[in-house]
Amino acid sequence: MSGRGNYLSGLAAEDAVARDYENRGLSVAARRWRGTAGEIDLIIRDKTDYIFVEVKKSQSFDRAAQALSPAQLGRICQTAEEFVATMPGGMTAGMRFDLAMVDGMGRMTRLENITQ
């Protein structure tokens, strides 16, 4: 797939994941939020808490999971701290980090709380 095709496929995966969270009664606070340490694909609001979601699209769930490196997860955590610091009362908000994976058939699975 071309670079543009990968980009569009990634956007479609992010949209599908965002709809899944919304269908569970949660709201999307931000998409592709960029801080000094990096970017967070989706930031979901759950009452007073935030869920920071990394979306990985690959041919299989295993390949998608392997695409998230420890260094990237560290950057996501730093960026999440930067995000909550910009929100009123944000530093007291609960934070969770999820990995949402979309395979080549468009199926989705989610690993919640991946930093524990």
- Identify the quaternary structure here: single chain
CATH architecture: 3-Layer(aba) Sandwich
**Count of runs of 4 or more consecutive helical residues:** 3
Give the low-confidence spans: none
Q: Provide the CATH topology.
A: Trna Endonuclease, Chain: A, domain 1
Provide the spatial order of strands within the biggest beta sheet: 1-2-3-4-5
Structural class: alpha+beta
What features would you describe in this structure?
With 116 residues, the protein is α+β, with helices and mostly antiparallel strands. It has one domain: Trna Endonuclease, Chain: A, domain 1 (3-Layer(aba) Sandwich). Helix content is 37%, strand content 32%. It is built from 3 helices and 5 strands; from the N terminus they run αβββααββ. A 5-stranded mixed β-sheet has the order 1-2-3-4-5, sandwiched between helices. It is globular. The model has no long low-confidence stretch (mean pLDDT 91).
Architecture blueprint of SSEs:
Blueprint: H1 3-23, E1 27-34, E2 39-46, E3 49-57, H2 61-66, H3 70-85, E4 95-102, E5 108-111
Parallel strand pairs: 3-4
Antiparallel strand pairs: 1-2, 2-3, 4-5
Task: Provide a brief overview of the structure.
The chain has helices at residues 3-23, 61-66, 70-85; strands spanning 27-34, 39-46, 49-57, 95-102, 108-111. With 116 residues, the chain is of the alpha+beta class.
Identify the notable features of this structure and list them briefly.
Trna Endonuclease, Chain: A, domain 1; 116 residues; alpha+beta; 5-stranded mixed sheet
